[in-house]
Specification:
The chain has 22 helices and 16 strands. The chain is of the alpha+beta class and about 725 residues long.
């Protein structure tokens, strides 16, 4: 921090005056003896993954989450992080979390650099900061995007959120809410100021944008000095104070600009209005640094910025409260030793305090070996508790270690298609299943005061994950990789493969006689890698007319019709083709949706589409009886009600011309990847759609699979570029 402050302030004030105001620089070794067997580099890397999972809008090309896709691109301000296991976006928690992430990078950037995570870290930080810039409207801010009632009622993936939202509300854009609010604006100003410090040496233009908005936000917040107008978020985040936020932001603006006026405001206006201990005139030192209380973080910064021993002692009270106690007050502890403040996000509070302890040791208590050891041990023990140093021998970080939570409260990673969370650890039922995806790097809320942890999605006071839960934890990890080392996992993240069939057909026999077969079929969409719709969706039913041919008849004697279509009255109505010849005496009918996006993984009535269709011959056809037993798609089907429905691979499903489910009569399966030259989209044919996808790829607006890239490498030079696009066009024209 002192290096950062020195570099920033020296541009506007003399080194001499700065030296008198700031303590001596303390260089911490990047690698020291590790105090555990945990890989803090891997933990930091996975926390970055968690923040990428939380990205809203059009995903950047550096996003590493194979099962995420674009979502809610038409938000009034796109981008930013989803708040928690839901899909709401708050300026408050984006700012609070970005400030902590940025502080961790500023304070311990050498450690982040040593494990090769600086670029990824900065990318994730800028994602939130750019959103905050968009939320600054000049005279007010956008403090929330999303419809809270709908969001917390519906359980599904971000990628299909708007499809369900439009279905339920008729709206194609989520609501957004504006206000003036000194608390939120103060935190936005702090985060953007920290962003300036993080980017000023690598992206000057971006940094100046951040600082310009930070100053404007701070000036407006200071002028307004009130909490107002944020009614829509109060059931989630009910802000209780704002002077602490102004205090925090002013300290950061002093670090960035060197302007004494910011510290003067702290002394004359903010400090007299900071929180006090209950029934006391003493400045507050209990509670913890969180989205609604940044007073202790501001206290630490003010002690560093002023070099005033009074403020050093004031912050010491806070760490004493969190360790051995001060003034007759001490943090509670679980039976196995976790400092425990509150039932919501107990690990969030503890790890955020751990980060402040690391900073204080490196900035305030460099001359007190015993105190430095005490606070470092507290921080180390708290962080290691998260990784398994607890009575349960359990990691509270998803994807770290072998024993970690299995039922975290998070919609998109659950992969639910029917608006129901899985019943892991709860009652068994048809929906009981593991999450579709592993939410690597997410810190869960944590145990209760007794040390109990309930691994159930519905017990979200334990299992909730959130961007603010991970923020202080991530900043503390920056300290740990600088102090103790660590390595990033070169094989992370893994590319996930589907754990269940994403698209398939369930079917049964409605009726069958010697003149017809009537089939009931469900087209199913349980996609989660990522969750998605298929506009050009169809499926084939194959049948054999050998008995007709042997009796002297032909396919012209066969008729087909749809008897019932779930979507007959809307855009997704289904049509049935005339019989199409496949091979020898085998024909098929293709049932095609006008718009297959009506089949979507968003709820009980949407994740499947029912159709009943009949294939028949005339009743008076002489000398022949319709025999369904030799029909390819009839195999394994049963007659009866809903219980008779079975998943059948013999009714094949398609995305356009590409087989996505089932086995064709010739044995072709979806795994038989097209190796046709030019077929970049792997649909089994080379056409104008491949040209379009190639151009989108060159514009970085589309991703290409490995085989798709091989197919599109028209000149076989192991590169995809404009020359391949030209060859593709010429070949198609010829």
């Amino acid at each position: 921090m002192k290096k950062i402050i020195a570099a920033a302030v020296s541009a506007v004030i003399s080194v001499t005056s700065f030296a008198s105001a700031m303590p001596v620089i303390n260089d911490t070794a990047i690698y020291a003896e590790s105090n555990s067997d945990y890989n803090y580099g891997e933990a930091l890397q996975k926390s970055m993954f968690f923040y990428q999972v939380q990205q809203a809008g059009e995903l950047p090309d550096w996003n590493e989450v194979s099962w995420r896709a674009d979502s809610m691109e038409n938000d009034f301000v796109p981008g930013g992080w989803f708040d928690a296991g839901d899909h709401l976006k708050f300026a408050l928690t984006n700012a609070y979390s970005a400030a902590l992430l940025g502080w961790g990078l500023l304070q311990y950037g050498d450690g982040v650099e040593a494990i090769g995570e600086t670029e990824t870290y900065k990318n994730n930080l800028a994602w939130a900061l750019d959103y905050l810039v968009g939320c600054d409207l000049g005279d007010e801010i956008i403090y929330m995007i999303g419809e809270g009632g709908f969001d917390h009622q519906w359980w599904g993936s971000a990628e299909v959120y708007m499809d369900k939202f439009e279905l339920m509300t008729g709206e194609t854009e989520r609501p957004y809410y504006t206000c003036r609010n000194s608390s939120i604006e103060g935190q936005m100003a702090a985060a953007l100021t920290i962003g300036y410090l993080c980017f000023k040496d690598s992206d000057a233009a971006k940094a100046e944008t951040y600082l310009t908005h930070a100053k404007s936000l701070f000036d407006r917040a200071d002028e307004y000095r009130a909490i107002g107008g944020d009614e829509k978020e109060k059931s989630y985040y009910d802000i209780t104070s704002f002077y602490d936020d102004l205090f925090f932001a002013a300290n950061w603006l002093y670090i960035a600009t060197g302007e004494q006026s910011y510290l003067d405001l702290c002394k004359t206006d903010y400090i007299p209005n900071l929180g006090k201990e209950q029934q006391s005139s003493e400045l507050k030192y209990t509670w913890g640094y969180c989205w609604d209380d940044v007073q202790q973080a501001g206290t630490l910064l003010y002690a560093i910025n002023t070099g005033d021993s009074t403020w050093k002692d004031q912050f010491k009270k806070h760490l004493e409260y969190w360790t051995t106690g001060y003034g007759g007050k001490q943090i509670s502890h679980t039976p196995d030793g976790l400092p425990w403040l509150f039932q919501w996000g107990s690990l969030r509070h503890a790890t955020t305090t751990a980060f402040l302890a690391y900073v204080a040791v490196d900035e305030l208590f460099t001359d007190d070996t015993a105190l430095a050891k005490k606070y470092t041990d507290f921080a180390d023990d708290t962080m290691n508790y998260c990784f398994g140093d607890n009575d349960k021998k359990m990691s509270y970080v998803v994807g770290m270690g072998d024993n970690y939570p299995q039922a975290w409260h998070h919609r998109t990673s659950s992969g639910a298609w029917n608006d129901k969370w899985s019943n892991i650890g709860q009652t068994e039922g048809e929906d009981a299943k593991p999450h579709a995806h592993i939410l690597y790097g997410a810190l869960v809320g944590g145990p209760d005061q007794t040390g109990n942890y309930s691994d159930k999605i519905g017990d979200y006071q334990y299992t909730e994950v959130a961007i603010d839960y991970n923020a202080g934890y991530t900043a503390a990890l920056c300290a740990m990789v600088e102090k103790y080392g660590g390595t990033a996992d070169s094989s992370f993240p893994p590319t996930e493969t589907p754990k269940w069939d994403e698209f398939f057909v369930n079917a049964s026999i409605n009726q069958s006689s010697n003149s017809y077969t009537e089939i009931k079929a469900y087209a199913m969409n349980h996609s989660a890698w990522p969750a998605r719709q298929i506009k050009n969706l169809s499926y084939n039913y194959y049948f054999d007319i050998t008995e007709l041919v042997e009796a002297g008849y032909s396919i012209s004697d066969v008729s087909v019709r749809v008897g019932y279509d779930q979507h007959s009255s809307d855009k997704g109505s289904i049509s049935i083709s005339d019989p199409i010849h496949y091979d020898a005496n085998i024909y098929y009918v293709k049932l095609s949706f006008a718009d297959g996006s009506v089949v979507m993984p968003t709820g009980q009535s949407e994740h499947r589409s029912e159709c009943q269709f009949r294939i028949s011959i005339p009743d008076n056809l002489q000398g022949v009886s319709w025999d369904a037993s030799n029909d390819y798609s009839f195999k394994g089907l049963q007659q009866g009600g809903e219980d008779a429905m079975v998943s059948t691979p013999y009714i094949t499903m398609y995305d356009g011309d590409r087989l996505i489910w089932g086995i064709e009569p010739n044995g072709k399966t979806p795994d038989d990847i097209s190796k046709l030259k030019g077929d970049i989209n792997l649909d089994g044919s080379f056409n104008v759609a491949d040209i379009v996808m190639m151009n989108l790829y060159l514009l970085k607006d589309a991703k290409v699979t490995e085989q798709g890239g091989i197919n599109a490498d028209m000149n076989d030079d192991s590169e995809l570029n404009i020359f391949d696009s030209i060859i593709m066009r010429r070949k198609l024209m010829s």
